[in-house]
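User: What would this chain look like folded?
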Amino acid sequence: MNTPDPDPGYRPPNAPTREPPSDDRGSLLQGFLLGWAVLIGSYVLMGILMAVLASLFSQNAQIFGPLITLVCLLPIGGIIALIVRFISKGQTRTAAGVGLTIASVFGLILLLVAACFGLLATSNFH
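Assistant: Here's the prediction, encoded as C-alpha cells.
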C-alpha cells in the first residue's frame, strides 16, 4: 500500500477541555444567614431610630405616630430588598435562603404564641 510518512512536526490538536459549569445561583445557607443578620441588624437600627424619634417628637404626637409605623416597617423592607437584590443578580438559591428566613420567623412566632397560650391555659387567668 501506498501510505505517506507522517510529518515529524505534526501534532494532533488537543481535545477541548471543558470547565465544570459554575453554580452561580448562590447558596441557600448564605441567604438564610444573611437574612437573619439583616433582620437582627434592622431591629437594632429600628430601636435606635425609635429612641431618637421619641426624644425629638415627644411633644408632637401627631407626627410621631406615622413615623413609628414607617420605622416598624424597616425589618420587612430590609428582607424584601435583600430578596430583590439577589434575584436581580441571578442568585435564586440565595434569595430562597432569605425566604427561608421569613418562614423561620413566622414559625418562631407561631411557637411562641402557642407556648404563651399553653402557659396561660394551665394557670388561673380570667
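The chain has one domain: 28-120. If you want, I can go into more detail on any region.
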